[in-house]
Amino acid sequence: MIAAETLPATTLTVGTNVNITASTNNQTETTIAVNPLNPQNLFAGANGGFNYGSGHAGLPSLFYYSTNGGASWKPSDVSALPISCCDQSSSWDDFGNLFLVYLAQAGPAVVALSTNGGASFFEVYQTSSAPDQPTITTGPGGNHAPGSVWITYIGVAQGAPVFGLGNVGAFLAPQTGSPGGTFGDIAVGPNGEVMMTYQNGGTGVGPDTISVNLDPDGLGPAGFNAGVTATATQVGGFAPIPAQSRRLIDAEAGLAWDRTTGPHHGRVYLVYTDRPTTASADTDIYLRHSDDNGSTWTAPLRVNDDTFGNGKSQFLPRLALDPTTGNLAVSFYDCRNSSGNNTAQYWATASLDGGASVLPNVKVSTGTSSANVIAVSTYKFDFGDYSGLAFYGGIFYPCWGDNSNSTGNNPEGTLTTLDAYTVAVIVPPALTLVQTKTNATLSWPNPTTGFALQESTGLNPANWTDSSFVPQVVGGQKRVAVILTNDLHFFRLRHP
Ligand SMILES: [Ca+2]
Ligand SMILES: [Ca+2]
Ligand SMILES: [Ca+2]
User: CATH assignment of 11-426, given 2.120.10.10, 3.30.300.20, 2.40.50.100, 3.40.50.170?
Assistant: First the structure.
């Protein structure tokens, strides 16, 4: 007899909080990326001290890289780039290209590239206009190039072919979606097709709609198809909640496209914020998905798992898909433990079943932060307009603004200005059992960093020991063939 058991879902393992910036002034609008060629190599960025009252002038953004899985961070050399204002977004492609987009103090969105793991950057493109909240993503290039890089801003997208490390072609002309909007995201599909999402942005408290546009040939000559309304939302472009009462929030729609060879290949996911009415502060995070390139979308899945209708705000969600497994992570600011609904922790969860359900949420910030302190309110920007998340090889890295000083190294002290924090969160891989009359095959994703197969002859009591089976790697999976005997045998994947 044989049984397959994954670790209980509650064992999403949250590591130690790390203060990336540990800098004076207010760090907001975080981005983070993982190098798929070396998952110990990370990059992160945040506003250095953007003050909404000062326009684009002022303190530039801060950029850092890590070579030890986020345990420590060094400043990136951005001296070759136009001086940054804010609104950074980053994406690492399969060639090892680390792309960064940000708003320059002079107005345009600047696309920069690092080919040395985030140690230094050079400029590859500037937009001709002065947009807002640019987002960058990477993926395959379809029939047109080995890879592609895309930016989106205010309902516009621009792509460029990528031919290898440091080898990026010219950006194509901006192509506009309909009906148009802002505060959006962009994703590349398995064949180089591109999807863009946004909300109207001019709707104040709301209600609003979140639209998607598909460019079916990506870098090819076709433009975006007509827009599809993926969902309505009661969160407009500038909606006040007590935890973010100056900057206000938007629905912060985000996309992820499953390009793995797994069971949900081709599925597109959409995360966003909604609430019962435009007068309610009880914002929640929702996830939908589409298996037809955005033409139709599933009913929403509520991602945050505090009691429905409890009045507490969840906001500024971020979505990321692990390209090694197809698993999803979602992270967000969360007021569930704030009696006044005006302080925020950072929470996260994962979906291991293609968005059908999410694991029990975990609090990933050790401490509790507040934008309702003088040190933050001075900047008139609260936590900013978004937060950061990256996911690779079974580990995801949320990245958020934090003034709890839980790490003890905020240079201005506790509940002063925000610093950019991160933490490694380990997702239990799925252990699958396929059984015939005489034998059984156990399989789990490859790579699965740090997990080992263990076996036990019972569960009460258990006597787990590392399994002597040596897994074979077949088609992105680790596999072990087990000959069935009359003995009880239990298996699990265990992260030390
Ligand atoms: Ca096209
Ligand atoms: Ca809520
Ligand atoms: Ca700070």
Answer: 2.120.10.10
Q: How far does the centroid of ligand 2 lie from the alpha carbon of residue 129, in Å?
A: 37
**Letter for the amino acid at 29?**
E
Sequence-distant (6+) residues with CB within 8 A of 391 are 34, 320, 321, 322, 327, 328, 329, 397
Instruction: State residue 350's pLDDT score.
Output: 97
**Gap from CA of 164 to ligand 1 centroid (Å):** 21
Query: What are the angstrom distances between the C-alpha of 298 and each of 293, 301, 329, 348?
Result: 12, 9, 18, 22
Residue 144 CA to ligand 1 centre (angstroms): 10
Q: How much distance in Å is there from the Cα of 298 to the middle of ligand 2?
A: 21
**Letter for the amino acid at 226?**
A
pLDDT tens readout for residues 365-380? 999 999 999 999 999 9
* The overall pTM is greater than 0.90: yes
What is the model's pLDDT at position 80? 98
Query: Phi/psi of residue 375, each to 5°?
Result: -60, -30
Distance (angstroms) between ligand 3 centre and the Cα of 384 equals 13
Distance 226 CA to ligand 1 centre (A): 13
- Amino acid in the structure at residue 305: D
Q: Which residues of the chain have pLDDT under 50?
A: 1, 7-10
> What pLDDT score was predicted for residue 100?
98
pLDDT for 3: 54
